[in-house]
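Q: I'm teaching a short session on how sequence maps to structure, and I want students to see two examples side by side rather than one. Could you give me a first protein with its sequence written out and its structure tokens following it? Keep the formatting plain so it prints cleanly on a handout.
A: Of course. Example one:
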Amino acid sequence: MYNTKERIVNASIKLFNDYGIASVRLQQIADEIGISVGNLAYHYKNKEAIINSVYDKLFEDFQQILGVYLKSPSFLDFDSQVSSYFAFFKNYQFYITDLFATEHPLPEVRQKWQEFMNKMIFQIRKRLDFHAKRGDLLPQSEATYDILAEAIWMTIVFWIPQQQVRNKPINEKLFKLAVWNHIKPYLTEKGTTDFSSLLLPAFI
């Protein structure tokens, strides 16, 4: 059971996704969970305090995803993390405006986004090295795998909003298929066998 502060944060996330952070008023948040603005102010003195709590939750969730890294040596490890990314970016759809904001109203949030995006690309790149050394991926130049890592990152981060813009379906299966389609051309015979036995059934 969520307490009132958690309900306020969750309601704010929903409204931020629907209308954008700038457009949401305190009255809307209060109405969303059926409390008075006075009760809302008891828990959060202003909208900025709510926004800060939303970002605290957002970055905590993101940190947890980054923390689940190479727990096992198979492709399933990355696939599981990709599932977590799908859930994250679907839950925090307002993030896209943050990434494109040249001047964020909360500079520390802008800096945090940059740090997490860089960590994300770094992890993806290290995964490619790991699986290449295991013989799952074909040997490639550093530059090739640098470009591949960024392509995978862009798909993970921007797949949901581009589907929305094009009025296309959004689901985890399609999301993961889009990510793995970047990797499949680089699979070795061993990698193809592992992919077919571990992951392909989920895409059929």
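Q: Perfect. Now a second example for contrast.
A: Example two:
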Amino acid sequence: MKFELDNKSPIYLQIIKYIKQRMVIGELNPGDTVPSRREMALELNVNLNTVQRAYKEMGDMGIINTFKNYQSNITTDENILKNIKMELINESLEVFIENMKAIKVTKEEVIEIISEKY
């Protein structure tokens, strides 16, 4: 999965979402070690302080666990993992539903289209 910056939200929040997405699709599994802060900054081509903020936030959320102030691992807490997946699903659905309503597509039409396309 490729990380692409947008101008809609702070970069540290985009990093958090990127990690969550990688977890949900299985690129990062429970217990996996995440790259060091420096490695992540280089990989994503962003400022080290931005990555440090993202890691701190993820630690506060319980998404990652940091050991000895440097090595961080993905949580193994099943509830957190399920909540992350549901959060990403709900975010996508909200945008989709807003877009469908904006172009006056009915709920029934949406269901029919999804049934055909999925």
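Q: What should students look for in example two?
A: Point them to this: Residues 16 and 22 are 10 Å apart (CA to CA). Also worth mentioning: The longest strand covers residues 64-67.
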